[in-house]
Design goal:
- The complex is a heterodimer of chains A (111) and B (112).
- Chain A is mostly beta strands and 111 residues long.
- Chain A is 0% helix and 52% strand.
- In chain A, 35% of the residues are buried.
- Chain B has 112 residues and is mainly beta.
- Chain B starts with a strand and ends with a strand.
- The chains are: A mainly beta (111), B mainly beta (112).
- At the A-B interface, strand 4, strand 5 and strand 9 of A face strand 9 and strand 10 of B.
């Protein structure tokens, strides 16, 4: 089925580094969502974006809804060990349409 | 705690068998979604129900079926199980008019 292009697929970073990941789509969306999944757990919603150009923060996490409505970015500042996991983006036109999911970005912190 | 409850947490069964996974959505949520996640893979959307009616269908095999009951809980039935059906199965729910889906802890199905 349709998928978003999420990159990078995985990231190896040092503790304290900033992290950036993004999602792009060939279709426009009216909502972008970012989730984090810990191993063996269900995805947890981190940030929801509803408006083109919107920039929203949740602690050390900041996400942006691209102006073209076809992309979104997630930044994590000063990464810590508990940031390890898989980050998923998801987009939708509205609540009447199903969410379209990215393949995930796996974040690994180098010891 | 997302408020979405899935049972059982783990399930081990043999090939050819049939199992039922259960999901209780967050209080008041009318939409229920089922996803499959194989090892180190992304989330594959299976099916969505809204207030008892099927609303959207994804990559759901004919051997799989689901339903949503009047009390809004949902069940995913998997039959003629194959080794490749081993995966995490997630249920999620969302409120009327909202896109955000809240996920349960998942059921880990192992087919041996």
């Amino acid at each position: 089925g349709q998928q978003l292009n999420q990159s990078p697929q995985s990231m190896f970073i040092q503790e304290g580094e900033d992290v950036s990941m993004n999602c792009t789509s060939s279709s426009i969306f009216n909502t972008w969502l970012w989730y984090k999944q810990d191993p063996g757990e269900g995805p947890v919603l981190l940030i929801a974006l509803y408006k083109a150009g919107e920039l929203t923060s949740n602690g050390r996490l900041t996400a942006q809804f691209g102006i073209t409505r076809k992309d979104s970015f997630l930044n994590i500042s000063a990464s810590i060990p508990s940031d390890v996991g898989i980050y998923f983006c998801a987009g939708s036109l509205d609540s009447n349409y199903q969410l379209i999911w990215g393949a995930g970005t796996k974040l690994i912190i180098k010891p | 705690d997302s408020g979405v409850t899935q049972t059982p947490k783990h399930l081990i069964t043999a090939t050819g068998q049939r199992v039922t996974l259960r999901c209780s959505p967050r209080s008041g949520d009318l939409s229920v979604y089922w996803y499959q996640q194989s090892l180190d893979q992304g989330l594959q959307f299976l099916i969505q129900y809204y207030n008892g009616e099927e609303r959207a269908k994804g990559n759901i095999l004919e051997r799989f079926s689901a339903q949503q009951f009047p009390d809004l809980h949902s069940e995913l039935n998997l039959s003629s199980l194959e080794l490749g059906d081993s995966a995490l199965y997630f249920c999620a729910s969302s409120a009327e008019g909202w896109t955000e889906a809240f996920f349960g802890q998942g059921t880990r199905l192992t087919v041996v």
